[in-house]
Amino acid sequence: MQDWLDVWSNQFAQDDAQLVTAAVNKIVQDHTGYPPSIADVKTTMKEITRAATGEPTDEEYWVILRSSLSDGVWGAKDAFNSLPAPLKTYCGSESWIRDHAQMDEETLDSVVHGQFLKQFPRVRDAEEFRQNMPPALREAIGKIFKRLPDGEQRSDHALNERRNLVFEFLDGGQS
């Protein structure tokens, strides 16, 4: 039991105790399994923080994305450029806007909406992780992993060389 408590204590040592308590209380209200996992508590803490800071919910992000399609094919570039960073990451390029602006509304509001709600949280979390990364690391990774033109691929050898450069950077050049 003490080992279990130590793990939980270590996982939340850097977090605000009131936020952790609020997250646990929220989970207890509607959680069917017992006990909630550390991941459940961390996820709920993120949800509470996002709500408190006014960050859009996933559904609100969908409304923003969905409305960007109203400019259709011709306004795709401006629509893409006006999106918040997590939505730009999700779409990848203005061609996503252009392609989806041509879809029928029923498909958009059912299939694409469902896919968005399933995929967007991971994209948003990855974007948040990237934004919170130390600037020097983000810059180093950006230099190492430059995007290739569409259709072009790196060889396995080139990918391994680039990964090794990241590991060397993370290791402080000690490898």
| Largest sheet: number of strands, sense, barrel closure | none
What fraction of residues sit in β-strands?
Answer: under 5%
Mean pLDDT: 85
* Distance, first to last CA: 39 Å
- Count of helical segments? 10
Provide the succession of SSEs. Answer: HHHHHHHHHH
Radius of gyration: 21 Å
What is the tally of beta strands?
A: 0
- Spans of at least 5 consecutive residues whose pLDDT stays below 50 are none
Structural class: mainly alpha
How many separate structural domains? 3
Tertiary shape: flat
| Helix share bin | over 70%
List the helices and strands and how they pair.
Elements: H1 2-11, H2 17-30, H3 38-53, H4 58-68, H5 76-81, H6 85-91, H7 94-101, H8 105-132, H9 135-144, H10 156-170
Give a verbal description of the structure.
The chain has 175 residues and is mostly helical. The protein has three domains: 1-54, no CATH class; 56-132, no CATH class; 137-170, no CATH class. The protein contains ten helices and no strands. Helix 6 (85-91) packs across helix 8 and helix 9 (135-144) packs antiparallel against helix 10. The longest helix is centred in the last third of the chain and has 28 residues, at 105-132. It starts with a helix and ends in a 5-residue tail after the last helix. The model has no long low-confidence stretch (mean pLDDT 85).
In brief, what are we looking at here?
Helices cover 71% and strands 0% of the residues.
Properties at a glance:
175 residues; mainly alpha; 3 domains; 0% strand; flat
